[in-house]
């Protein structure tokens, strides 16, 4: 059943995947506000089935526009994912496959495109991973890309900016806010800490404790698990209120009708749903790749619609370029051409998303992997099935270094019966697995792969290490035996 096919194929037929058109249509919005939240697991939101009540404003916001029920990010890690958001290209193509990389200068990011079209660009950002040194700030003037460790202060700053400068003097604005919460340590300020925990207690969410649970594969009771989820929901409630204040500032100035407002997350969070993992960077699963996605513009985007067709975060850039009347999705270097679909017709209620599959990728460079290999793990989903392909039996190697995140060579999940991807049914449905594998090959054979060197800036590496994104000492990591029931995954390797 295992196939040995090299995915490193030169680009062909990329036009099949590219959306957008080269002529600029008249704009449907004057401004763009993008609010991305780090590590927001979709199913915690009420509008996506969450039951804790931690997201009242976000749920009301979803009612005011289009909510995409099946949106996937292309990598469950901040910088790779946001690079895809802003380039509309897959991680394998832009090469920013890890937070330790730097977005290359030649990439044509959304903020650059909008600045070239005359927009004022401004960013309020709370995660050190997205510091200007990461290269993601291209298109923002240095003083207009602002980092805030305190998110309440960041929100006040953004609200003041909206009150005083946004859209003044007839200019067009692109404003991007990125919140660090609900990213670990699930420790929101004040009352949010205990709001959603049974009995209003404080929960021990020390990252060292959660890492130990993952490393030791501790079996938690339902109550213990709910406690951590409650702490996490408190961070979602905090962000809910921060977003409410920003949108309120737009409403106060009567700007919402002329502004395309997009709300989403860079990726989700496993929250113990796979391999006792409370983090995201190792995960190809829906818990960490399914993202919330809302598009709101009262009076232009019909309210209260739920769109359940498949979309990817690659679709964001071509959509907003058309929506803002900027065009240019196909301009410049064909090698940098956006890959996503233009969802303009979908937002207007005229068409449905036309994706058959959504693709996510997890690049691993792991000297201690089972076969001494490196490569990529892929996840491809349609509406019914989810297929994870790890033919080289690589172990994702994000910290903590003692941890183990096993992924089988092939995994298949029936999303109708098993949306949380708990029961691998690949042995029961080899025909489906073959079809999904064929779809994966068709998708990846159009990609041009690119490899970038890791960042060498010591100060940036130190910050990433503090956030838990850099392995401390590879040599301290134990090696693991493959599951005994499987054939030797290294057999026949070149
Ligand atoms: Zn992130």
Short note summarizing the structure:
This protein has helices spanning 56-63, 78-87, 91-94, 110-116, 151-164, 207-216, 222-252, 286-289, 316-323, 344-347, 430-444, 458-466; strands spanning 31-37, 66-72, 120-125, 145-147, 173-179, 259-265, 290-296, 305-312, 358-365, 374-381, 385-389, 410-414. With 494 residues, the chain is of the alpha/beta class.
Q: Please describe the biggest sheet, giving its number of strands, its sense, and whether it closes into a barrel.
A: 8 strands, mixed
Q: Which percent band covers the strand fraction?
A: 15-25%
What spatial order of strands do you see in the largest sheet? 4-3-5-1-6-7-2-8
Mean pLDDT: 88
CATH topology group of the largest domain: Alkaline Phosphatase, subunit A
- Which structural category do the helix and sheet elements fall into? alpha/beta
Low-pLDDT parts are 1-22, 366-370, 472-494
CATH class annotation of the largest domain = Alpha Beta
């Amino acid at each position: 059943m295992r196939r040995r096919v090299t995915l490193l194929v030169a680009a062909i037929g990329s036009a099949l995947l590219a959306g957008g058109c080269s002529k600029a249509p008249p704009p449907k919005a004057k401004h763009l506000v993008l609010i991305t939240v780090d590590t927001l697991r979709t199913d915690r939101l009420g509008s996506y089935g969450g039951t804790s009540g931690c997201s009242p404003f976000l749920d009301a916001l979803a009612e005011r526009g289009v909510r995409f029920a099946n949106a996937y990010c292309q990598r469950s890690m901040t910088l790779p994912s946001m690079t895809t958001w802003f380039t509309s290209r897959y991680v394998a193509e832009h090469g920013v496959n890890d937070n330790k990389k730097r977005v290359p200068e030649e990439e044509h990011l959304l903020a650059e495109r909008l600045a070239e079209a005359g927009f004022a660009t401004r960013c309020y950002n709370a995660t050190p991973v997205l510091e200007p040194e990461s290269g993601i700030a291209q298109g923002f003037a240095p003083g207009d890309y602002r980092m805030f460790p305190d998110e309440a202060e960041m929100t006040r700053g953004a609200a003041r900016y909206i009150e005083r400068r946004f859209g003044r003097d007839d200019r067009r604005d692109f404003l991007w806010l990125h919140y660090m919460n609900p990213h670990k340590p699930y420790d929101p300020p004040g009352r949010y800490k205990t709001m959603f925990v049974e009995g209003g207690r404080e929960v021990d969410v020390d990252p060292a404790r959660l890492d130990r649970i993952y490393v030791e594969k501790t079996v938690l009771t339902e109550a213990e698990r709910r406690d951590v989820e409650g702490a996490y929901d408190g961070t979602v409630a905090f962000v809910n209120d921060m977003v409410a204040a920003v949108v309120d500032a737009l409403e106060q100035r009567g700007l919402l009708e002329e502004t395309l407002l997009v709300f989403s997350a860079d990726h989700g969070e496993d929250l113990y749903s796979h391999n006792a993992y409370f983090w995201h960077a190792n995960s190809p699963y829906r818990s960490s790749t399914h993202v919330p996605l809302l598009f709101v513009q009262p009076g232009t985007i019909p309210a209260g619609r739920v769109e359940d067709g498949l979309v990817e975060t690659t679709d964001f850039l071509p959509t907003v370029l058309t929506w803002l009347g900027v065009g240019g999705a196909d301009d410049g270097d064909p090698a940098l051409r956006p890959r996503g679909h233009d969802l303009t017709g979908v937002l207007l209620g005229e068409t449905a998303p036309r994706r058959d599959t959504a693709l996510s990728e997890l690049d691993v460079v792991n000297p201690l992997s089972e076969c001494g290999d490196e490569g990529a793990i892929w996840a491809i989903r349609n509406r019914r099935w989810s297929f994870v392909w790890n033919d080289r039996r690589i172990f994702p190697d994000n910290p903590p270094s003692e941890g183990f995140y096993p992924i089988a060579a092939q995994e298949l999940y029936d999303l109708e019966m098993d949306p949380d991807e708990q029961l691998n049914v690949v042995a029961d449905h080899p025909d489906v697995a073959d079809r999904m594998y064929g779809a994966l090959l068709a998708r990846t054979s159009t990609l041009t792969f690119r490899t970038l060197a890791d960042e060498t800036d010591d100060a940036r590496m130190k910050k990433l290490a503090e956030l838990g994104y850099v392995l401390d000492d590879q040599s301290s990591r134990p090696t693991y035996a493959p599951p005994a029931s499987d054939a030797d995954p290294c057999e026949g390797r070149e």
